[in-house]
Amino acid sequence: MRKISGLIGVVTLMFAVTSCGGGDSAGPGGGGGGGGGGGGGGGGNCPAGTFCMGSSTFATAASSSNPSLTVAPNTAVTWTNNSGGIEHNVVFDAPAEALAVGAGSAGNIPDHTTGSNLRQFATTGSHPFHCTIHGTASSGMRGSVIVQ
Questions:
Q1: 61 vs 45: CA distance, rounded Å
Q2: Whole-prediction pTM
Q3: Which H or E element spans position 58?
């Protein structure tokens, strides 16, 4: 009888562990079909002040559905493509407002499969962006930086 109880306990534990999350190990912090936010998951392992690029979404530490970050003027914001080799870009509605950080580049972020890029914004307001490979300004892979 003890063997049967132990076996049931092990099977129950295995079921509980494998059914949590539903994440994507290649994505930034998981969150596929239901982990951490139902359908999109949370930002998971995405660091603060960063937009992480998944297979077809941007995510932040707080959100993965058309996310936004609120920052002070001239704060460095990071876009990180850790999607496992999926090509992305970042096109700003107003590329001239996406300023260089240090010796880095300014404006739109070109197609890339890995790595991080930084931009800062001096003007207050909303600075929308999207990936032209996986979205448009009004649908798909998009987000915004809100400067206050």
A1: 7
A2: 0.70
A3: strand 58-59
